[in-house]
Write a structure and sequence with these properties.
This protein is an alpha+beta fold. Helix content is 39%, strand content 19%. The chain has ten helices and nine strands. It has helices at 10-14, 29-36, 50-59, 93-102, 117-129, 142-150, 161-169, 217-231, 234-242, 252-272; strands at 46-49, 69-78, 80-85, 108-111, 134-137, 156-160, 173-178, 205-212, 245-250. Strand 4, helix 5 (117-129) and strand 5 (134-137) form a beta-alpha-beta unit. The longest helix has 21 residues, at 252-272. The two termini are 32 Å apart.
């Protein structure tokens, strides 16, 4: 879990321990609701992410976004990719498109649930590329989709790097397109979707710390400074890199700008791809 990568240094840089509390349910919506309604004193924070705090509020009107939560610090981008088995003939998106056009409706893609980020990304790609495929949902999460990919039950999957790194290092899967705006620093030879001619308008999933909306700015600034120092500790960065993420300590302004732009993209996605 990314949040655990920098909790050790909480007392040193924030003056007190960081206690992680998991409020499961609703794909993160329950935890988001809890923090949004908490006292805005800087003591109750949320470790948020794209799916729960951008896609869900923009498309479905549930969970909480930047109108209800205040950005503190963007911790990292979780570099996603389109992955295939190591033995797959697909080397890039053109190979995928060519095969899909020659075999309409036969190519299988794994997403992490209906109307998830991975679902919308593929549905957009299908439309842009003019192909027809089978979009297979794995609502239990990325681990289930990876098992299906390894077992040959699907041919391609859009998954974050933490889920796939062990299998890639074992030589069982390989990436064919980065889902971020830029190439992943640890996999610089893999071109982005945009470089291959397809830009859905949003990048890899962000992970970040947010607070209740009415938290005073001096508290936000103090939290940002403390978390930034915490995350700059060598072991914190090393732990994040083990997960395949890359560290970018964006402050409240840059974080909010990125967050709100992403929300706009997902709102348009909701209009283009209504619930079926």
């Amino acid at each position: 879990m990314q949040a655990r990568a920098f909790t050790h240094h909480g007392p040193k840089h924030l003056g007190q321990p960081i206690v992680l509390v998991i409020r499961a349910g609703g794909s993160g919506a329950i935890g988001s609701e809890f923090v949004a309604q908490a006292k805005p004193d800087g003591y109750t924070l949320l470790y948020g992410f794209t799916g729960c705090n951008s896609a869900m509020p923009a498309i479905e009107g549930r969970s909480k976004g930047p109108d209800d939560l205040a950005p503190v610090i963007m911790v990292a981008l979780s570099g996603g990719f389109f992955w295939v088995q190591a033995s797959s003939p697909f080397k890039n998106l053109k190979d995928v498109i060519d095969w899909a056009k020659a075999h309409p409706g036969e190519l299988t893609y794994g997403n992490t649930g209906p109307r998830s980020v991975t679902d919308f990304r593929w549905r957009w790609f299908e439309k842009a590329a003019g192909i027809k495929t089978r979009n297979v949902a794995f609502p239990k999460g990325a681990g289930e989709a990876m098992v299906a990919l390894l077992g040959g039950h699907i041919m391609i999957a859009g998954l974050s790097t933490p889920t796939t790194l062990p299998q890639m290092r074992a030589g069982k899967v390989r990436p064919i397109a980065s889902l971020d705006f830029e190439r992943h620093p640890d996999l610089p030879d893999i071109p982005t979707m945009k470089e291959q001619g397809y830009d859905p308008g949003f990048g890899a999933s962000w992970r970040g710390i947010v607070a209740p909306k009415k938290t005073p700015r001096p508290i936000i600034d103090k939290l940002y400074a403390g978390f930034k120092k915490t995350m700059e500790e060598p072991d914190s960065i090393a732990n994040l890199k083990k997960l395949g993420d890359y560290f970018l300590p964006w402050g409240p302004e840059e974080f909010e700008k990125y967050w709100r732009n992403e929300m706009k993209v997902f709102k348009e996605f909701g209009k283009q791809f209504p619930h079926e």
